[in-house]
Amino acid sequence: MAGSTPRVGVLALQGAFREHISALQRLGADAVEVRTPAELAAVDGIMLPGGESTTMDLLLGSSGLREPLAAAVAAGTPVFGTCAGLILLARDIEDGVEGQRTLQVLDVTALRNGYGRQVKSFEGPVALASGGADMVGVFIRAPRITRVGEGVEILARLGDEPVAVRSGSIMAATFHPELTDDDRLHEVFLAGIANTSGE
Q1: How many domains does the chain have?
Q2: Known catalytic membership, residue 83
Q3: pLDDT tier, 197 (very low <50, low <70, confident <90, very high otherwise)
Q4: CA-CA distance, 163 to 150, in Å (whole number)?
Q5: CB atoms near residue 132 (< 10 Å)
Q6: Fewer CB atoms inside 10 A, N or C side of the chain?
Q7: Dist CA 92 CA 192 (whole Å)
Q8: How much is the average pLDDT of 46-66?
Q9: Is residue 176 annotated as part of the catalytic site, yes or no?
């Protein structure tokens, strides 16, 4: 869809999907909620929001979205997962519940609730690899990235820890960039969609 407004789907089964829609709309994207395979098929990129990763895993199955989503990502549709969305994309998870599944498309290991439970939620300075002022990272029952695979680019760090990464058309962050007015990571995602659409 070169030259046109990107249509970005936000998985709206559970979690902070409305905030992602607001951030994308601020940047001029056509952002829509996705709950069905037909809605997924009509978008140029997909956001996987935060929420509860085990619940989202179950809802992907009951909605019929798991296989179409996996196929879309495998075909190169740009995807950006935040918090629980990162867990859904990760190749490996630590401290997962029995039977919990991921799409296994991003070569990282994610530790569920890596910073502790809800009461351990915090905000911290996130340094972008691209430079500029730090982002305010909102970490709510956030996962930790405990392993970064070869070829996975680190986009942002909290101290020495990677908190946002990219591999090809796949982006992920452990925190919630949609809960602030700093849209720089969403901008990176939209630029990736534009590049993919223009190929």
Answers
A1: 1
A2: yes
A3: low
A4: 16
A5: 9
A6: C
A7: 25
A8: 91
A9: yes
164 in a structural domain: yes
Residues 77-107 pLDDT 10s = 999 999 999 999 999 999 877 778 899 999 9
Nearest-angstrom CA–CA distance, 12 and 157? 28
pTM > 0.85: yes or no: yes
Choosing from 52, 83, 94, 199, the catalytic residue is 83
CATH of the domain at 170: 3.40.50.880
- CA dist 70 and 30 (Å) reads 22
Catalytic one among 20, 33, 153, 178?
A: 178
State what percent of residues in the chain have pLDDT above 90.
Answer: 77
Q: How many CB atoms neighbour CB 5 within 10 A? A: 12
Mean pLDDT of the chain: 92
